[in-house]
Design brief:
This protein folds into two domains: 1-47, no CATH class; 51-232, no CATH class. It is built from eight helices and four strands; from the N terminus they run ββββαααααααα. The chain has helices spanning 49-66, 72-80, 91-106, 119-129, 136-139, 144-157, 164-181, 189-208; strands at residues 15-16, 24-27, 34-37, 39-40. β2 and β3 form a beta hairpin.
Length: 240
């Protein structure tokens, strides 16, 4: 039987509610604003998505603005090692496109229209992906980290709802990442981020002839994750 996620306030297993009549009206432990939610601690603890990811989002922005690292997997690992970054949470949704675009920028890869990738592009990616709520993977069938790869391609190609080819490419990217994430394993935000990056690098090579020869390192977070699938996970089994 799958283990549940735990409350970061008290360690109790979180409750997931499927019927609107059973949703709870709770105040966030930090901002004290009231929310109606279907994910909460049985002891009444609740942390809204904004408070859950506010500090990690700032970490993502600051690191991506200043880093000269070119390897997207190293960028992701450095950010996820920050003490403000949680084991699970919606901050991973913003992390995926930020890391991808930062790696492209630092490798001096230009957009298809010939313009440079800027930090403004990275901030836009963070802004878009940070709007994807927590729990989307299970409740909406669309992992936020996987959607983040589509956000990255959308910005890279200049997609909008009226741009036929760029819009299609962004959706293809998301569907490809989601297919990889749908692996019949316990959900893991770290794995979803890494798999999304892997699929994006393959996509960039196939669609744009951009060949960034980077591979994920062995997972550095398995010991802190009680639900880790270990040898079932492609990232865990990496040799280095």
């Amino acid at each position: 039987m799958s283990k549940k996620d735990i409350c970061i306030i008290c360690g109790e297993e979180l409750e997931y509610i499927f019927n609107q009549k059973d949703y709870k009206k709770l105040n966030c432990e930090f901002c004290q604003n009231e929310f109606i939610t279907n994910i909460f601690c049985p002891k009444g603890h609740y942390i809204c998505d904004t408070c859950h990811s506010e500090k990690p989002i700032k970490v993502i922005e600051d690191f991506c603005k200043n880093t000269v690292l070119k390897n997207p997997f190293l960028i992701a690992d450095r950010i996820m090692k920050h003490p403000s970054f949680n084991q699970y949470g919606p901050e991973h949704h913003a992390l995926t496109p930020a890391v991808i675009l930062t790696a492209l920028k630092n490798n001096n890869i230009k957009k298809p229209n010939g313009t440079k990738i800027t930090f403004s592009d990275i901030k836009e990616a963070i802004n878009r992906a940070s709007k994807i709520p927590g729990g989307y993977c299970g409740f909406y069938g669309s992992c936020g980290a996987g959607m983040g790869s589509g956000v990255a391609i959308s910005i890279f190609t200049g997609a909008n709802p009226s741009t036929v080819i760029p819009r299609s490419l962004a959706n293809k990217m998301t569907s490809r990442a989601l297919a990889k994430i749908a692996d019949n394993l316990e959900h893991c935000c770290k794995r979803s981020v890494k798999l999304s990056i892997c699929e994006t690098l393959d996509f960039l090579r196939e669609e744009f002839n951009i060949d960034l020869k980077y591979s994920p390192h062995k997972c550095q977070f398995s010991n802190s994750n009680e639900k880790c699938e270990r040898d079932n996970c492609l990232i865990f089994k990496m040799e280095v």
